[in-house]
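Forwarding these from the shared drive since the link keeps breaking.
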Amino acid sequence: MSHFTSSHQINPISVKLLNRNQVIANYSGSVFINQNHVLDNVLYIPNFTFNLLSVAKLIDNLSCVIVFYSNGCHIKDKSSLKMIASVAMQGRLYILRVLSYQNLQIKSVKSPHITNIVNFIASDLETLWHFRLGHVSNKSSDVIKNKFPFLKYNKSFICDICHLAKQKRLSFPLSVSKSKKCFDLIHVDVWGPYSSSSIHGYKYFFTMVDDYSRYTWVFPLKQKSKVVKILEDFVVFIRTQFETTTKVIRSDNGTEFFMTNFFSNK
């Protein structure tokens, strides 16, 4: 009964349990999921030791969608897909943690102009700190927890917001192709600019990877325009030192690799 925000007496309703026993519900009421979502017509059964939530009833009552994972599920608003609650799995059961209504703190804040009534309704603390700290990674959460042991977080929690916000592009499929010998295919890319220059004034670095051996060359750069000279010298270096030629150079089509005349001559 401590979970009910309001309740009223109803005509007795017989509820059949899984063990075929029948119990009687004489009261019905409303229960908070969070500060914005309330379940209505919840039956109160005094001699029943578990709080059970029907998925079908939940979807109908809150107009929500539920996404199930191997270690829990997320309850989301149907139209905005905003998170309503995160549910963890324990012992093959999905456990939704709801703070009892008696523990909800209601504070009044008075000013010369207005009076605000603020409801503080705690959600699952294991995921709450993940949101409060700006969707920090598990590694960062470990560091924070070592200094502040009272913070709680769930390593198995799956955050959809992190997946969508931190993933810059779709994952590339795994490649099974491989060159037949060294220098048949060279991968090239430029990283930068960095906000702070190095001691020697470098703000970029140019990376080349041999597809066959995976041997990697890294060249620090002050300007991206230096890529042309380095790449031309590298092709000559391969020919003179290894008596072979570079067949393919693969890039991301960055403007620094627009060396049409050079590639045509080779």
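-- next protein --
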Amino acid sequence: MPRIFAYVVHKGGIADDSAAELLAAARKIDPTGSVTAVVTGFGPNLDRISESLRASFGEVWKIANQSLDYPNAELIRKALVKVLPSGCFVLIPHDHFGIDLAPGLAVKLNAAFAPDILDADGSMGSNLNVVRQEFGGQLSAHVRCDVLAGVVVTVRPGAFKPAGSNPVVGLVVDKSVDVGPLSAGRRYLETVAAEAGDVDITRHNVLVSIGRGIQEKDNIGIAQELANVLGAAVSCSRPVVDAKWLEKSRQVGSSGKTVKPKVYLACGISGAFQHLAGIKGNPFIVAINKNPKAPIFQVADVGIVDDLLEFLPELTNKIREMQSVSAK
């Protein structure tokens, strides 16, 4: 089995939750093999993240370069091409940054490329079988990759649940010298903070999140009633914001807010990767959708096929009954 590398995204010296998901995906590909984490950046935060990953990964390759202080896919692609061995597997989170990084990396490595995978099986010897979705999640495509030249895959957020594993004492290997100087045609200018809203969805342990299935603005009150009895907040997917039914500050996803609730109710949300990219922390996901083939069911802990406009009021009433009984 080729060597497996996981590109770990981090911020402030803390690994993104996708690191554990990449490790879980690697275990599906090769249950017994060692997985090497690759981290890039500059300064003390890079050393901090490298040390923290030693408990999960057999090796941690550190690439320190001042030009990588802010993640730039063009520069990171050049750096990885210089250090990754030919014929390896590279796992990358399927988010806005991974979409920028991965395709070009596969071209530079002359490797197969499989984006947005939901499942993987590396037991086929010279082939890697992966599952991804087509046509907005209406079709599951089983793709066979020839692994002789290596494979680059991006992993859909939430598709691989992190599992408890035996702690390891990995080795940190500094690959900075092997990379050398880096230059790119684009550079980081500034970070524009997201607008503040009346409700900070990032601070709530329970979110009732609504999508296109809510149908119209007047129906949002149904979700708000459920949120009220749960002590939760109402969040949403992008179509709700585009329709101007809720403000941008309520949006969860790659172009909205990143949230880490304990419980996430996805109501009428299809489950596109752009939305799932904003859900971190491996919450308990309850999906309610009348389309049994909605992609959200692939990552949900509990899936309910029903019309949310009928189901949510029933759920709200049931919770009120339970609360009334417990209060007596």
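The longest helix spans residues 308-327. Residues 201-327 form a domain with the Rossmann fold fold (CATH 3.40.50.1220).

- D.
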